[in-house]
Amino acid sequence: MKNILVTGGAGFIGSAFVRYMVETYPDYNIIVYDKLTYAGNLDNLLPVSDEPNYRFDRGDIADRETVRRVFDLYDIDTVVNFAAESHVDRSILSPDAFIHTDVVGTYILLDESRRRNLERFVQVSTDEVYGDVEEGFSTEDDPFAPNSPYAASKAGGEMMVRAYHVTHGLNTVITRGSNTYGPYQYPEKLIPFFTTEAIDDRPLPVYGDGRQVRDWLHVDDHARGIDMALHRGEPGEAYNVAGENQRTNIDITHRILELLGKPDTLIKSVPDREGHDRRYAMNCDKLRALGWERQTTFEDGLEATVRWYIENEWWWRKIKTGAYLDYYKAQYAARLAASDSPAP
Ligand code: NAD
Ligand code: TYD
């Protein structure tokens, strides 16, 4: 392993992985391949932009010709695929891009990886493929039951990864991460969205009763989990990367407001997300057996993350303009207008 292509490396988790890998493995060449969609942002890679073992190339993982050119140009031997459309609410509004990238794009990458006989292919997936988990903890052998178009597109990508391992012997590993938070997360996901809205004293639209449970994982712990699976994972296997830290959305919302010194009156209960999964929770003994351990507690991680958004307005203010505002309107205008109740 020497020349690692990190697809989607300009996004939230991909860029954390790149920053970590460039620093940890000076002998590897880390090449980011990213389409720079609305969620891709070269600012996320500024901390490594001058490092000699880092390169960036722009392109779509579903564009076979460009993928081939990049594989040749950098003599790629390993792929870590973060590239995806990643937001559930957008997958409800417009699913096309999810099928294009998460399903077709994953297939093109796999197919080109097989043709070149790559050493390793890591697919970054999600706990959402297991669907709603009313009680207990998902293990890697549980059946899939995706409920949103996003979750279904990720499950579809995973199925193709499995097929390329079984049929063609490609050396694949899959990671399934839980809800991730930290710096540089696009302000459409719960924690950065509510933090940046609350800084501006704007309403926080909590879906339904706010009692849905997610399992929160710090982005640096997620990045190290993927590194562990890359280096030590068994070919053809999947590994859960869990925060083992379950919180309701409303508890997190209160905590963000507390950290910012803002009033709970900003909380608005709005009509629920369609098909909203109540709870995700995973067991991650399998990854732990490879030697992975979490390093960040949720209390410390959330506090540091909120502080990061306070101190880095330069990063998020310019994002929350233009097309972002069109999305905000489509997703929230009617919901907030329908909201007559305050905090759930
Ligand atoms: P993100 O939306 O922040 O970033 C996605 C990146 O992929 C962006 O840089 C974007 O430009 C790029 N991209 C999108 N379509 C592309 C295409 N066709 N070709 C090349 N690049 C393309 O996403 P994220 O939150 O960093 O998630 C990264 C991966 O981790 C995804 O595969 C996601 O499914 C998975 N995941 C995310 C979470 C989470 O909580 N955010 C949890 C578990 C798993
Ligand atoms: P999100 O960050 O979109 O991640 P995911 O849907 O992949 O879990 O949402 C996390 C939780 O927060 C989820 O239960 C939906 C809820 N949520 C709200 O209540 N209001 C919002 O405006 C957003 C973006 C999310």
Structure description:
- The protein is built from twelve helices and 13 strands.
- The protein is an alpha/beta fold.
- The chain has a domain at 3-181 and 216-241: NAD(P)-binding Rossmann-like Domain (Rossmann fold, 3-Layer(aba) Sandwich).
- Helix 4 (96-115) packs parallel to helix 5, helix 6 packs parallel to helix 8 and helix 6 crosses helix 10 (298-311).
- The chain starts with a strand and ends in a 6-residue tail after the last helix.
- The chain binds nicotinamide-adenine-dinucleotide (NAD) and thymidine-5'-diphosphate.
Secondary-structure blueprint:
Blueprint: E1 3-7, H1 12-24, E2 29-34, E3 54-58, H2 64-73, E4 78-81, H3 88-93, H4 96-115, E5 120-126, H5 149-168, E6 172-177, E7 180-181, H6 190-199, E8 204-207, E9 213-215, E10 217-218, H7 219-232, E11 237-241, E12 246-248, H8 249-260, E13 267-270, H9 285-288, H10 298-311, H11 313-316, H12 323-338
Parallel strand pairs: 1-2, 1-4, 2-3, 4-5, 5-6, 6-11, 7-10, 8-13
Antiparallel strand pairs: 9-12
Helix pairs in contact: 1-7, 4-5, 6-8, 6-10
The protein binds nicotinamide-adenine-dinucleotide and thymidine-5'-diphosphate.
Thymidine-5'-diphosphate (TYD) is lined by residues 88, 179, 189-190, 193, 205-207, 212, 214, 249, 273.
